[in-house]
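User: For documentation purposes, I need each entry recorded in a consistent format: the amino acid sequence on its own, followed directly by the corresponding structure tokens. There are two entries in this batch. Please keep commentary to a minimum and don't merge the entries.

Assistant: Recorded as requested. Entry 1:
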Amino acid sequence: MGQKQSTLKKSGYKIEKESESHAVVTKDGEKFFIRKIQISTNAELITQLETLKTTSHPHVMSIENSFKDEDQNIYYLVTEYCQGGSLAEKIKLKRGPEQEFEVLSWIVEICMALRFLHEKDLLHKNLMPQNIFFTEFGTLCLSGFGETQANDTNASTAGDEAISYLAPEVFTQATYETKSDIWSVGCILYELCTQQLAFSADTTVNLIPKIICGPYPSLEGQWSPEFCDLLSDIWTSDPDSRPAACEILGHPITLRCLYKKSKTTVDHLQTQLGKLTSVADSLERVHQGATIGSLTGGVIGAMGGITSLVGLALAPFTLGASLVVTGVGVGVGVAGGLTAGASNITNMVNQSSDRKAVEGIIKEFDEKISAVPLWLQEISSSLQTIGRCNEGDIPDDEKSNQANWARFGTRVGRGLGGITELFRLVRVANIGKIAAQASRAVRVAEVATGVLSGLFVAADIFFIALDAKEIHHIRQTQEDGTTSSEIMTFVQSIRRAATELQDVLDEFKVVISDVPFLEDERELEWEHME
């Protein structure tokens, strides 16, 4: 174990917790999660993980780094550390029909992640609550890819609990495919609703027949019929008849969920943007107050005026460093007054902005502004597919799969008065307009990522580098109207970013406004339950 630890340390990671297969580490003040994978027995898995490194998805845990220790035969996979805990911890909380939207929201995010993986010809193979995590801001992320070899039915590597999530064909045909991941989604959905494993037994020998032969459990009547139908649809023993991730996402109940998720998240981001703007307003008042007070008397409480403070570093903005006076000839007699003056300005800034709060808003924006356009695009994609089914417009490369398209159209028609009614609603919608706007929303969100990165850097500079020279710069304004004030520079950065972020939110709202037909009585009932 000592050698393994030294490998991580040589790479700059400080170990907080470690086991034979995992480690929680920190580097440069950030926390990460590391998986240790045997190279010799997981060559295919490592190749897939390397593929994932080059891609990103809001609901797939991002891979930050990877490296190998050939001598120890270990591949280290470094991923983000999700502070929100695992889905296994959420399952312990009892839920009723009033939390149906919450459960469905998580299932939708899981299916979006699976669709992303399956389109890249990747399988999860170990989909269970312990491998699903939440970020600090509640976004669900899949992890644990291939950690258990799903074809290993003797449980030598998995254990009974992992086997409980495996699909029938894994045992009957010794195969694992995309639909096998979907079966696991049903197991997770059931467990979220009941706090019980869908399939359990005292031994593996007794457990496997239950999965193969059934009967499969169902949800009680307290859940909506559509919700119960979704589970029974997933738990189809024949994988060919089981829905794919895209079919689940095209189900009316999940479309409405995506609509509500998009709408409520945009509303929340609008509120957060207001908070960020209020920080700029408060800091501007600090600047004005300091200027009006001429930074003398009660504001600074020190002799010698502004020039006496040049070079005095404010401790809170230098990560706890001591106050330092350099090259300004400040005598011992005024040192106490200088410290008091610095503290006064520090308090004024601290009262107007909280570093963690500001950085939290920026991080949350960055995270959710990437997720919302994908949700909107998913709605658009499903509507286009349903529309093509209605018109009989099956793509040439899918004509050999016509039966599946017909099944898709039949399946998604459940719960809205039948397929005819759903197609009527689709015809009412301007699908082409929604698709164009959803695509634009994705492009605009990509630009916003750069805006947020710039704002985060600006915040970092402001909170770390701000020092007593600010007191001098506060009174200086260039002839062209620009300012040397660190406070006003940051204020201007916030205002520029807020304008651009508002444009992004407005783009999202335009798409959302074109799909109100998804807001039916069930969606309104979800809102009432909250």
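Entry 2:
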Amino acid sequence: MAGQRKSVTRRTVLRGTVAGAVAAGAAGALRPGRAAAEPGPAVAILGGGVAGLTAAHELAERGFDVTVYERRALGGKARSIAVPGTGRDGRPELWGEHGFRFFPGFYRHIPDTMRRIPFAGNANGVWDNLVAAPEARFSRRDTDDVIVPLGKAGKVWASPDDFRETVSSAISTTMKMPQTDALHFANRLLVFNTSCDARRYGQWDRVSWREYVGAVGRSTEFRMLLSRTLTTLLVAAKDDLASTRTIGNMGEQFLGNPFEVANDGPLDRLLNGPTNEAWINPWTDRLRELGVKFVSGEVRGLELDGRRVSGARVVDAAGNARVIEADHFVAALPVEVARNLWTPEILSLRPELAGMSQLVVDWMTGIQFFLRNPSDIARGHAAYVDSPWSLTSISQNQFWNRTPMSGLGDGTVQDCLSVDISDWNTPGILYGKTAKECTHEEIAREVWAQLKAHLNDRNELLRDDDLHSWFLDTGITWDAAARRNNNADPLLINTAGSWALRPESHSANIENLYLTGDYVRTNVDLATMEGASESARTAVNALLDVTGSTAPRCKTFTLYRAAELEPFRQLDATRFAAGQPNMFDA
């Protein structure tokens, strides 16, 4: 039995090697379909979100026998959610989302997978369903909004002085910010971009973004746009908690992406239809073609036999429990679930996993407003800078050329304003309560009021008569007795100092257990589906090493860094080792 195996057997290694040879082929390419050869080692993937599906994809292409166990719905937080009972006269139901999709150009792992998911009529598979957003809107209460075009930049800066001048001028012009504040922020970006890795991990990861940028004493525009909004948009975290290394890394990508160097495409991209139709369903179809099996079940625990996982306890929807066995186990569970599996026995073998109990999760969840008329807010994402609940939105119908809203529901919906709520802990303007304390009806009314307060102060862009209905992510459930919401899908927050608490994907101390998820250490280092995808590839590569497979390793990518600033990063490595500050850190 698999539960009795105490080490990787010679037969397991040979099967993995044969499967790898089949996968590699004469040219080293992965096989396009299911091989006739004997399946490779059995792998149980615990969790069917982006991390789990990515691991399943990579392993199945390399000939492994893969089964995915998922407690709710494949796709996890990335999936669409059908709005029950909304379809009429043969039309499909309206689609809700955990949150609007966002595929920035610096994502490279997710697009690489998308190109390997066939889609009828698309030469590049699901990847061809990505469309670019040409602009972003930063909406303010009682003042003019800022529309920022998102296009390709003309040239890369040639020197640190050029960097400061170019970036500060762009910030001052587009954000209507005092030049002194814009120059200060540009210099803080320069300090980070010229910081060596040792400083980023050893110094900046321990400093909050607010402290790093020196927000105290700066203009309101500086504090709201460059300190608060940046952090809530990226990681749903407060600027006094978010790690400077994480926010700085993302700022580095957003600065570099317009030059279209070392990236996959335009800065802001979305899918051209509901996520399930344009991505998740074609993906799971492809995985089934490759032989992946999907089983409904919630993981309740792991069983050890020496230094190997011998089985996982799974409970199905009916409450029936059983122990599943496999040669290898990939834990593709979110951090708040995974850390509950670490028994004293597991922690004795991998004591570093104890740090996961200190990782912070918070809420960033979507609500959709279905409209009877098209909205005219922005040709891209909009951020509502002064909103207490840190709202952002996208008007979806303008991008959904495959599945227009008029073809869904009762036929009267013409648009969907998909909104993310990033701050669930600050009182709102309508009821004076936090989102966690509001009923679902109150959440909808409060979000609508905050949107109108931003958009209707100059022109009436949102009209009550246009509101057809709304849908709140089903992960949010109301506890009437406690007068408070629960959230089944919280989000990891990259707080200052959290890198030290996060584990690597694999350790030889538990030889057949592999961790994947956006809490695992990755290069992208952000709670995103890109981080989930990168961590899954790292886990699969570790599994290939353990089995001795000759199959090609999964591609992994690194974040962009301006080559022009590399000499300054090398100099900074010497300065950091000597205990000196970055040369631009005045």
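Summary note for entry 2:
Residues 1-29, 31-36 have pLDDT under 50 and may be disordered.
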